[in-house]
């Protein structure tokens, strides 16, 4: 759908306009979702001992944490088209907070596995984050906007690695056992998710000019029927082979990031003779790169579009992914802690730039099925994480070997960018839209920073 009054600039210190409120609330929501989604990852060494988990069991819980997200991401995009991102996000946050708080009741491998499976649903928050910024920002800046909200959201993967061990340590210092400490620590992100769900409903709206229900009643956007929204959006997106090419591409970048979020702390703990807190701090560096790395991917995607149109976005994505794969193979071969950290940071830079560049392309695939495209491509990330999880579940493979094979797989995934092509008509149309947005007035500035009426 085409929406009016999209922002042509990102004004970071603007908290009044609806476009920037959606920007800030969406990245914050996704950021906190990581605390629920991966909050247990830096504590796995303690959980492993408490529940007597072997390597295969730990691998199964890693797979469970990302497996259900594939299905939920496929569904959540069309739900955004039907109900709007505001109600969809609020519902996901509130409902998702329940299993996060309840994981502490797990007392066996089976119950812990089920808890991680249920928690994985909140990973679908990424799709809503990208959807919400895509409908709020114009073509000249949408790549940067998408990349920044997703990147600052993904930053939660790094801050989780840093903060959750501190929360755990603080709780244990009060005199409780470690077995009780990790359970109480997970209550904290659960409460935060619940509160933010209520805040999202109150402080955001679906589109620059209002909520979908009001816009449909006014005839400004199509009604959600068999032809528009819901499953119709999914079917339109699924019929486009280019969307599935990006599904594979995103499996090779975000799927890899999810995998590293799950295994980094325990990898450094087991292989470099560091304690749990230090392993968490090192692993946190990987996620902390999101503060700027994914934004760089979106920025260079927009910059490439300025000179080469949509073709430039595709070419940049291929280059970033290829370097990502090479860097991951190099990281897997490091045996000295300092060089392992250095190569991990280089790898982190390019995996996150690849993610930003992927969603620099997504808004241009099919504007009539934006939710469906976001859902399918977003699900690709988790599908990749599920497949990668089997590498770290196998007893016959070390973590280093698993990382090496994963790096080669990323190089193969980069080749799928060549399937993403556009007709000359679409290239010309989007180039004209980009130029118009670049030279036009910013609707936020024109209104003096005032929000649109809901």
How far is the first residue's CA from the last residue's CA? 19 Å
Largest β sheet strand count, sense and barrel closure = none
Number of separate strands = 0
Number of helices: 20
Structural class from helices and strands?
mainly alpha
Shape: globular
Average residue pLDDT: 89
Q: What is the domain tally?
A: 1
CATH class: Mainly Alpha
Strand content: under 5%
Helix content: over 70%
CATH architecture: Up-down Bundle
| C-alpha-based Rg, rounded | 21 Å
Q: What pattern of helices and strands is seen along the backbone?
A: HHHHHHHHHHHHHHHHHHHH
CATH fold title: Growth Hormone, Chain: A
Transmembrane segments: 21-45, 57-76, 88-106, 152-174, 180-201, 243-269, 281-300, 312-331, 337-362, 369-392, 398-420
Biased composition (Basic and acidic residues): 442-454
Region (Disordered): 435-454
Keywords: Membrane, Nitrate assimilation, Transmembrane, Transmembrane helix
In short:
It comes from Salinisphaera orenii MK-B5. It contains 20 helices and no strands. With 454 residues, it is mainly alpha-helical.
Notes on the structure:
By secondary structure, the chain is an all-alpha fold. It has a single domain (18-442), classed as Growth Hormone, Chain: A, CATH 1.20.1250. The chain has helices at 18-38, 44-50, 55-83, 85-102, 109-119, 125-136, 142-173, 178-185, 187-203, 212-217, 230-238, 241-251, 254-271, 276-288, 293-332, 337-361, 370-391, 399-414, 424-439, 443-446. The protein is globular, with a radius of gyration of 21 Å. Keywords: Membrane, Nitrate assimilation, Transmembrane, Transmembrane helix. Residues 442-454 have a biased composition (Basic and acidic residues). It comes from Salinisphaera orenii MK-B5. This is MFS transporter.
């Amino acid at each position: 759908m085409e929406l009016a009054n999209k922002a042509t600039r990102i004004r970071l210190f603007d908290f009044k306009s609806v476009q920037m409120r959606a920007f800030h609330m969406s990245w914050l929501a996704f950021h906190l979702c990581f605390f629920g989604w991966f909050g247990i990852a830096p504590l796995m060494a303690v959980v492993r001992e408490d529940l007597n988990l072997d390597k295969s069991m730990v691998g199964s819980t890693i797979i469970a944490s990302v497996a259900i997200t594939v299905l939920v991401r496929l569904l959540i995009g069309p739900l955004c088209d039907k109900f709007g991102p505001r109600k969809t996000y609020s519902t996901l946050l509130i409902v998702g907070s329940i299993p996060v708080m309840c994981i502490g009741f797990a007392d066996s491998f089976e119950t812990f596995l089920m808890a991680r499976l249920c928690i994985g649903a909140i990973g679908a928050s990424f799709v809503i984050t990208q959807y919400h910024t895509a409908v709020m920002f114009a073509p000249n800046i949408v790549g940067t906007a998408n990349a920044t909200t997703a990147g600052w959201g993904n930053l939660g993967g790094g801050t989780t690695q840093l903060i959750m061990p501190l929360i755990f340590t603080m709780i244990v210092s009060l005199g409780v056992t470690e077995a009780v400490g990790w359970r109480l620590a997970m209550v904290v992100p659960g409460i935060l998710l619940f509160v933010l769900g209520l805040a999202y409903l109150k402080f955001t709206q679906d589109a620059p000019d209002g909520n979908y229900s009001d816009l449909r009643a006014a005839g400004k956007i199509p009604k959600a029927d068999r032809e528009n929204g819901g499953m119709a959006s999914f079917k339109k997106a699924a019929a486009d082979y280019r969307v599935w090419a990006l599904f594979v591409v995103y499996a090779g970048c975000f799927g890899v990031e999810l995998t590293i979020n799950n295994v980094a702390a325990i990898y450094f703990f087991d292989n470099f003779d560091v304690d749990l807190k230090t392993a968490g701090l090192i692993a946190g560096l990987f996620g902390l790169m999101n503060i700027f790395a994914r934004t760089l991917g979106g920025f260079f995607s927009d910059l490439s579009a300025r000179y080469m149109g949509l073709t430039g976005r595709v070419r940049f994505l291929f280059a970033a992914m290829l370097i990502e794969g090479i860097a991951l193979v190099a990281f897997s071969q490091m045996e000295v802690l300092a060089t392992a950290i250095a190569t991990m940071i280089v790898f982190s830079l390019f995996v996150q730039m690849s993610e930003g560049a992927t969603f620099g392309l997504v808004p241009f695939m099919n504007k009539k099925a934006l939710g469906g495209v976001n859902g399918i491509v977003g699900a690709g990330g988790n599908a990749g994480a599920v497949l990668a999880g089997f590498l770290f579940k196998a007893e016959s493979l070390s973590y280093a070997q698993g990382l090496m094979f994963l790096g080669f797989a990323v190089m193969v995934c980069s080749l799928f960018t060549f399937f993403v092509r556009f007709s000359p008509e679409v290239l010309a149309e989007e180039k004209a839209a980009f130029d118009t947005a670049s030279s036009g007035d910013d609707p936020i500035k024109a209104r003096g920073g005032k929000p649109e009426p809901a």
